[in-house]
Write a structure and sequence with these properties.
The protein has 196 residues and is mostly helical. It folds into 3 domains: 69 residues, no CATH class; 38 residues; 39 residues, no CATH class. The chain is 65% helix and 0% strand. The protein is built from 10 helices and no strands. α2 crosses α3 and α6 packs across α7. The chain is flat, with a radius of gyration of 32 Å. The two termini are 54 Å apart.
């Protein structure tokens, strides 16, 4: 878009859409111009979409605090030293962040954030008792290993499909010359054409 195509009317529309907190792509679609042109003009006008988003977040946080005050809810309290000690003890026991959150009556995000700020290490484990899916998955895995051990007669050894152990279980194909391989491939192509 040439620079002289931004007249006062277009700039006022751009300002209105910017103040409505639309994304650059949404503004571009409504004005029928490219997203880059919108971003460039906003930068030249000294306006930034990121600054607008941060301002909106700050307003939202202030609104939440006001709603808590007006509704009679107590303000969110900072973590007391007793609660931090409890968090450290539960983390030392090796509990997951979700288990700690459940025991303390807090959200998982709150527990993880406070642990990070306080330098408390929380184990990244999934307690099967907390989640039925993982309990079923672990049972399935154990059953699969037991079935494999019963079939093969040894302990379960995880292996990829290209591992030498698996490769050596299958009989080897006889060595073939290049001409024999070409003939085999040509026959396979003919068979495929006939089947189709």
């Amino acid at each position: 878009m040439p620079r002289d195509s931004w007249n006062e009317e277009k700039v006022s529309v751009l300002n209105e859409l910017f103040l409505a907190r639309l994304s650059a792509q949404a503004i571009a679609d409504r004005m029928g111009i490219s997203r880059c042109a919108v971003i460039g003009k906003l930068n030249r006008l000294g306006l930034s979409l990121e600054t607008a988003r941060m301002t909106q977040r700050a307003q939202d946080n202030r609104t939440r605090a006001r709603v808590r005050r007006w509704s009679g809810l107590p303000p969110e309290k900072p973590w007391s030293q007793e609660r931090l000690n409890e968090l450290a003890e539960l983390a030392a026991k090796g509990l997951s962040s979700q288990a700690i959150a459940n025991r303390m009556g807090k959200s998982q995000k709150s527990v993880v954030a406070r642990a990070a700020v306080s330098g408390i290490k929380i184990a990244r484990v999934i307690d099967p008792a907390e989640n039925d899916y993982f309990a079923r998955m672990l049972k399935r895995r154990e059953a699969k290993r037991a079935a494999h051990a019963a079939k093969v007669g040894d302990t379960y050894v995880p292996m990829s499909k290209t591992s030498p152990i698996l490769r050596n279980r299958h009989p080897r194909l006889p060595e073939m010359s290049k001409n024999e391989l070409r003939n085999m491939l040509a026959e396979a192509v003919r068979n495929t054409r006939m089947a189709a």
